[in-house]
Amino acid sequence: MRIGVVRETRADERRVAATPETAKKLIGKGHELLVENGAGSACSIPDAEFVAAGAKVVASAEAWGADMVLKVQKPTAEEAAGLREGAVVVSFVYPGGDDELAAVLRQKKATVFAMEAVPRISRAQTMDALSSMANIAGYRAVIEASYIFPRYLPLLMTAAGRVPPAQVLVVGAGVAGLSAIATAKRLGAVVKAFDTRPAVKDQVKSVGGEFLQLDATQADAEDKGGYARAASEEMLGKIRALLHDAAVQSDIVITTALVGGRTAPRLIEAHTVEQMKPGSVVVDLAVEGGGNVACTRRGEAVEVNGTTVIGYTNLAGRMPFDASRLYARNILNLLVHMHGKEGFNIDLADEITGPVSIMHGGEGRVDAWKGAN
Ligand SMILES: NC(=O)c1ccc[n+]([C@@H]2O[C@H](COP(=O)([O-])OP(=O)(O)OC[C@H]3O[C@@H](n4cnc5c(N)ncnc54)[C@H](O)[C@@H]3O)[C@@H](O)[C@H]2O)c1
What we know:
Elements: E1 2-5, H1 20-28, E2 32-36, H2 47-52, E3 56-58, H3 60-64, E4 68-70, H4 77-80, E5 88-91, H5 99-107, E6 111-114, H6 129-148, E7 156-158, E8 161-163, E9 167-171, H7 175-186, E10 190-194, H8 201-206, E11 210-211, H9 233-248, E12 252-255, H10 270-274, E13 281-284, E14 301-304, E15 307-310, H11 320-338, H12 353-356, E16 357-360, E17 363-364, H13 366-369
Parallel strand pairs: 1-2, 1-4, 2-3, 4-5, 5-6, 9-10, 9-12, 10-11, 12-13, 13-15
Antiparallel strand pairs: 6-16, 7-8, 14-15, 16-17
Helix pairs in contact: 1-11, 6-7, 6-11
Bound molecules: nicotinamide-adenine-dinucleotide.
Residues 120-122, 125, 128, 130-131, 134, 171-177, 194-197, 200, 226-228, 231, 239, 256-259, 261, 265, 267 line the site of nicotinamide-adenine-dinucleotide (NAD).
């Protein structure tokens, strides 16, 4: 098969969907790798490294015209028009009702593997791009906050006197939250965390955080897939009160709470941010799902009464080298999973391949297409 690796065109996207390491492995399986020129340049992978791995560097149209196209962000309808008939596209898709793109992919009789639809099961962990990117985003949230924060994070005893450690609050202790807790702890901060899923308590402790306990617990906080269920309005009121008290005592607040992996509950209100200490920083990682913080502005850093509220999207894309390395390996592992002796075998009955294939030969599973995972 000819496998194309195309250059990302979204303004904030610096990742690439294959690296010389994964290209070499795919070539080893008998495929030809066609890398669009400059595809890796935004994440510091020069074309020459792809060539050294055995790939061919080609013009855009040739990479898009391959049998399979590897990508990070979903293609635009215009880009998809460059696919050959029957092509396979492997990418994050997050369709959100992109009917124009869906129509082009149908017309091209495309097969689409949506990376966000990899099931969260043990067998698929090596392919779980949501987790690998969330891990990076949690780390990067702490780095972004500490860059703006006008103080040290660790406790310091200096000749000029003692400097107290920073107080960090992490809201939502899933993959991104746990990564943020571990990072802030490694940098020497005192870290507290809250989540509605009681199962998370021990995980928070194991990475060095203190779990904030709500007196009333939610009996059915978790669904079968391990995702949080939406909290009731009454419960949300209690959570907001708890987080208000915790946030005004904190220097850095990082919010990561999502329900069903997609929707962000509003957990921190404007008056809470207004009452935080001047110089504090809030990073709202749930911005793609609407944000956990009332003052967040998508894609921006805004100041609210002396506190900076960061609503940057695609934090993983701000560490494009490692993000590409991990994402490319997730794709490679998915493709190897589907690979038989003779090439790719797309078995829709398979517990991983089935959910990932949101379109097969132009036939869309519209329910999945409208919101995988
Ligand atoms: N391969 C696997 O087995 C695998 C891989 C990844 C995740 N998972 C499971 O899925 C879980 C969630 O993963 P995720 O990080 O993608 O979650 P997510 O991004 O959907 O949500 C982040 C966190 O927000 C929390 N949250 C939701 N509403 C909240 C509220 N009102 N207040 C406070 N916190 C709230 C959730 O409980 C979750 O921990 C994991 O912790 C794990 O149990 C399993």
